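Sequence in, structure out.
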Amino acid sequence: MSKRKKAVIHRLPEIIARDGGEWVCHYCGKKLIPYGTPSNTEPYYVYKIQQALPTQVLHMPTYDDYERYMGMWMGGDIQCWLGYYVMNPEYRRAVADHVIPYAKGGTHDLSNLVASCDNCNARKSTKDYDEFIEYLGQQS
């Protein structure tokens, strides 16, 4: 993470408190995952289970093990499942966005920061606030 991003991301709790206490994107209104939330915390992340190949699940140090497990799997003797967490589609990652872009002379002052989702922040890029709001209006 760049030094500039570190300078503002830790201010997200202050920004949220100033703006009413809800973790929502200032631009699109999507729910935000609070900064620092571990990637296995529900409801922000959802546990998924899918069928997998033995090579994805089992530690197979030798080629003989690989052949044996693949033969068992293809013969229907074993089933392998893989479990992992994915981000809930109702939520987005939280970032602090500069109202006046840092690239255009904006500061890290709290008055120049809003809570944004990573998607809106990337789309805004170096656009000014009013320019981005107009752009969002054209998209809908």
